[in-house]
Every structure is written in C-alpha cells, then in structure tokens.
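Fold these two proteins, one after the other.
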Amino acid sequence: MHNLLLFTLQVSSTENEGGLFDFNATLPLMALQFLALTVVLNILFYKPISHILDERDEYIRNSLTSASASLIKANELTKKYEFELAESRKRAQKIIKEAQKDAQIIVSEKIKEAQNNTEELLKEAYDQLNIQKEKALISLEIQVDILSDQIRLKLLNFND
C-alpha cells in the first residue's frame, strides 16, 4: 500500500501539465487506489465492526427476548399470587364468619343458661321466702294462740 502511494506521488510529480481534468494514467490509478482502499477498509475495519454490531444486535435481541419471557413469567406469577391471595382472603372471611357465628351461638347458649340459672335461683329464693313465710305464719299463729289463751285466762281469772 505504501509503495502504491509512493508510485502515485511520483507519477503526479513528473507530470505537471494539464490542470484539473488531466486524463492520463493517474485517473485510472486513482480509481484503482480508491477501490483498493475500499477493499482494505472493508476487510480491516467494516467487517469486524459490522460483525461486532451484529453480535451486539443479537445480544440485545436475546436480552429483550429473555426480558420479555421474564416479564411474562412475572405477570403470570403475579396473577397466580393475586388469585391465591384473593382465595386466602375469601377463606379467612369465611373462617371469621364461622367463628363469629359459633361465638354468637355460644354466647346465646350461655345467656340462656344464665337466664335458666337466674330463674332457678329466683324460684329457690321465692320458695325459701314462702317457706319462711309459712314458718313465720305458723309461729305467729302459735304465739297468737298462746297470747289469746293467756288473755282469756286473765279475763276469766279477772272475772272470777
């Protein structure tokens, strides 16, 4: 390549006649130089750079494909977990409702039991009061009888 450049410089320095449009051997030589430079640049620079760019494009495509696949998988997992979460919430609500229902049943049973116990206690208290009332009445009747007997005896003794 270096020799080719030197040759063109020698050819151009020997011929100074003409001007801008000299159609001698330099024009085809310049065309050959241009083609040779194009081939050399293509081999040395453009092919490796295009190869690197192709590899980069392939890497980006692969990365985008794997990212898309990961995104799809993440969306599927998100939907799955959201569905499972919704199901868990439904089950939890159902358990809570059942527990409240059971608690309400237990509370109402305890209230009924307490009412029955209260009624029994009231009945026992009423029965005891009636028994005490009967005893008090009997005791009063006995005392009234004793007092009336004493009054009658005193009156009979007083009249005699």
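Now the second one:
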Amino acid sequence: MLQQLINSFVLGALTALASSLITMTAYRTATLEQDELVDFIVGSVVASRLSENPNWEVLVLEAGGQPPPESKESFFPRGKVIGGCSAINYMTFIRGNRKDFDTWAEMGNTGWDYDSIMPFYIKMENYKGKHAKKYAKYHSQTGPLSVESLRWDSPFTKYFMAAGKELGLEEVDFNSEKSV
C-alpha cells in the first residue's frame, strides 16, 4: 500500500517535471467544411513531404490532438495523438517487410513492390544510426525524417544482447537486407 502511494507520487512528480522541460510542437489544425476537398489524406511524415507542394491540400487524419508532454515518458501502448504511435513508441522506425510489399504488388498494386518503394524510404531518411557505414546503401543522410539509434536503453539490454550473441545471433539494422 505504501509502495503504491510512493509510486503514484513519483509518477506525478516526473510528469510535472516533464511538462516543464519538454517543449511541444504546435500543429496547425483546422476543421473541414462538409464539402471541402483535399488532395491527400495521410499520416504526419508523408504529409510533411506532400505539403512541400503549395498547390496541394493535405489532410492529416489522426485519432487525437496535441501530444501531452508526458507522452515522451509514457509506456502505455496507445497512439491517440497527432503523430500516432510514434509519439509513444520510442520513435521506432520500421519500414515494413519485403514480403508484404511484394504481396501487394502481386495483388495488382503496381509500384508497391519492395524494390519500387525502397527509394522513397531512403529519400525521406536522415539516418544518424550506429550502423551508418555498414548499411549505407539502405539509408540516406539528407531526408527530412531523422532516424537514429536508441539514445537510452534498459540496463538489462547488455545482458539480452550478450545472450543473443552467445546463441549465434548478430546485431543488425532491421531496416536493411537482414529484415527481409
């Protein structure tokens, strides 16, 4: 009982501290009229690229509003904010599985195969990860989307990594050929 009280107090204090330290991005929001037309309805990152063309109207459709400051420390798996789950999932960037893209192309969606999509993923990246040299052909360092290695991990990570290495597993970039 006492431990729960202490945990609640510490969580509240950390939330208050986070709120005072984290500067939130203000997103322009608007309510569309019933018959208003837009050229694209997409997620945040794609919207950023599309909105570079001043002739296009882009609607970002997300389930939620401004991310609260404590979302940067949240461990709850809900992405009901602008930016979706990326606001709470440690910003993990995963392109997707080659087989999924290739299956979509086989279903008649021309241009959605993995090899056709890859140049667009690479173009949008500004990769700053620890695998930059080893997997350079799978990344760009000039795009608008920052992708990097974790800045923090659990103290137990080194033990999990050592166990994996002992089993013969290697550390890889999961956005390279090792992911497919």
